[in-house]
Amino acid sequence: MESEAFYKLIEEILRHFKTDKPESSDKWISGAEAMRMLRIKSKSTLQKMRDEGHIRYTQPEKKLILYDIESIKSYLEDFVYEPFK
Fold this sequence. Notes:
Number of strands: 3
Shape: elongated
Number of helices: 4
Distance between the termini: 46 Å
Strand order of the largest sheet: 1-3-2
Structural class: alpha+beta
Helix content: 40-55%
Radius of gyration: 20 Å
Order of helices and strands: HEHHEEH
């Protein structure tokens, strides 16, 4: 394979991976997305976390509750345990 063809192939592969990667720039996510991130299945567990102040949320409408993605990431980071060396 010629070097020019090789570099074109590499560029095409890199372009493919860059476009397939979804970039989530939303600060607020739905309850279903929050549950997926936290790997929980119960809406009542999510509500308990919200009520106890573990994760931040906003409620712009009566039936719409959105969760702060950074708050969820921070909550998960609080429970990281380092392995023994």
